[in-house]
Design brief:
The protein has two domains: 48 residues; 172 residues, TIM Barrel, CATH 3.20.20.140. By secondary structure, the chain is α/β, with parallel strands linked by helices. α2 crosses α3. The protein has eight helices and eight strands; from the N terminus they run αβαβαββααβααββαβ. Strands 1, 2, 3, 4, 5, 6, 7 and 8 form an eight-stranded mixed beta sheet that branches.
Length: 257
């Protein structure tokens, strides 16, 4: 009789513990659903500095101070849209560049050409007297971030065919990097190295500047946002390479280049 009573006692305690765990689990699920339910409206309707419209730059116009008799092109060689990790649509990207005083830009989304033709179409049809948009891409891999720039006559099929591997995690060999550079240049394009110091800190076995030179690159990006790369600038001057500055714009902000 004693053993039966003790057994019943343990069974009752076990059932009570199960009910307690179940209640806690249900409470946790309810809390998570409440957080999610409150977050979605906040993201959609609440104040958000990272949401933009086509009219955001209607009342803003910046006139850069440079020698317009000697130079007639102010180019941004590196920027992004929502088709990679940027915050603007292709149209908004164009409008931002016009407002910032640029009259030429290269659209270089990470591993994607999806916004290029849309941007070029908008620029040709609506803003041809204000800005020229060139096709480009930032080939982002685990070893290098390269800008590929294509001239206007190159077709979508041609520049789409240059990159066979498009992944941040892909680790190209030197021969594969050289193949991409060679094929781009055969189409009349240019290839440059983006933000070399930053990539050198975070990428795996990025080629040296001299290795990039031997692989056939055309230029180094020496100003990325507000970060100046003195060593790449000097290396380019010493070895007859071109240099470019770029906003690397993901979220619109001040222009330092």
């Amino acid at each position: 009789m004693f053993l039966l009573t003790e057994s019943n006692c343990y069974m009752a305690m076990f059932k009570q513990k199960k009910k307690s765990i179940l209640r806690r689990f249900i409470s946790l699920i309810i809390i998570l659903w409440l957080i999610l339910a409150l977050s979605i409206p906040a993201l959609m309707f609440g104040p958000d500095k990272l949401r933009f419209t086509d009219t955001d730059w209607d009342d803003f116009s910046f006139i850069p101070n440079y020698n317009t008799t000697e130079w007639n092109v102010l180019l941004d060689s590196h920027s992004h849209t929502k088709f990679s990790d940027g915050k603007l649509t292709p149209r908004q990207n164009i409008l931002w560049h016009i407002a910032m005083g640029f009259n030429a830009m290269i659209l270089t989304d990470h591993n994607s050409y999806r916004g290029v033709e849309k941007a070029r179409e908008i620029a040709r049809n609506e803003y041809d007297d204000k800005i020229k948009v060139f096709a480009g891409i930032e080939w982002a891999t685990s070893r290098c971030h390269l800008t590929l720039i294509f001239p206007p006559h190159v077709t979508t099929e041609e520049y789409e065919g240059v990159l066979k591997f498009r992944s941040y995690t892909y680790t190209p060999t030197d021969d594969e990097i050289k193949e991409v550079i060679t094929e781009t240049k055969e189409l009349g394009g240019l290839v440059g190295v983006n933000h070399y110091p930053l990539s050198d800190r975070y990428l795996l076995k990025q080629p040296s500047r001299m290795q990039f030179y031997d692989l056939g690159i055309d230029f180094f990006e020496i100003l990325n946002g507000k970060s100046y790369d003195y060593l790449s600038h000097k290396f380019s001057l010493d070895n007859g390479l071109g240099v470019l500055s770029a906003t690397d714009m993901h979220v619109p902000g001040p222009v330092h280049s």
